[in-house]
Amino acid sequence: MRGALPILLVASAIIGCNSSKTKGSEPVVAAPTQGAAMTAAPAAPGAAEGLTGKVLERLEAAPYCYLRLQTAKGEIWAAVPAAQIEKGTEVTIANPMLMGNFESKTLNRTFAEVYFGTIAPASGAAPAAGAGMAAPAGNPHAGMAPAAPIEVGKVEKATGADARTVAEVWAQKASLKGKTVTIRGKVVKYNAGVMGKNWIHLQDGSGDAKAGTNDITVTSLDPAAKGETITIKGTLRLDKDFGSGYTYAAIVEEAKVQKK
Fold first, then answer.
1. Nearest-CA neighbor of 206 among 233, 173, 166?
2. Spans of all domains in the chain
3. Alpha-carbon span 190 to 140, nearest angstrom
4. pTM beyond 0.70, yes or no
5. According to the model, what pLDDT value does residue 137 have?
6. Which one, of 170, 194, 169, lies nearest residue 180 by Cα?
7. From 3.40.50.11780, 1.20.1440.170, 2.40.50.140, 3.30.70.20, which CATH number describes the 166-258 domain?
8. Residue 95, SS3?
9. Distance CA 75, CA 46 (A)
10. pLDDT tens digit string along 89-105?
């Protein structure tokens, strides 16, 4: 997955929703990112800015709550981390990712379309980095200004036998498959708490933006923040398929983050 990815969790208390709770847990799904390596359902108009609507219905499927929202574009379903949200409340789904034909095993139900994201703070601001995000899904924030792009520049390469630039990872991915890589770069996008992981898009000034080789997606249990320069060490996986059309030609998983 290349370019921006899908996500930040707002700390929330898990409560019972209106429908009866069923046993089971949601399947792990990754946060999508831009680039030719990934295909996904087209985003709805306005999804890039956010989705705002009134809660008409709630369904519990821990660790998520599914919300049926009445928006200016019509009714939609959204999935957010379980939180105390009353019916009739107007909410904004931040950092949404659209999933098509998404099956919730907990609810034993397939949603034709569902946006995974997080509830934006009451102020309308985007969730702070590290606050956490929901499953892979878009984060629509109606009326929100686009995030300012991160100036990457040229980041000094990490040291060590397994150190690689982002471009080198893409160029050598076949021989690096399943191996440990160390990359130093700047966080250009960060989604926390997506299915129990933090999703990082890392760039170091190397690679070709048009070809998508300037950005690498990383998953980690360690926190980071957009704009930080960090060093990550993890395992390179190729052709990772998380279902619903979300596939990654290359992704670094189980990474440890060093902030220096």
1. 166
2. 166-258
3. 16
4. no
5. 35
6. 169
7. 2.40.50.140
8. strand
9. 14
10. 999 988 788 888 888 88
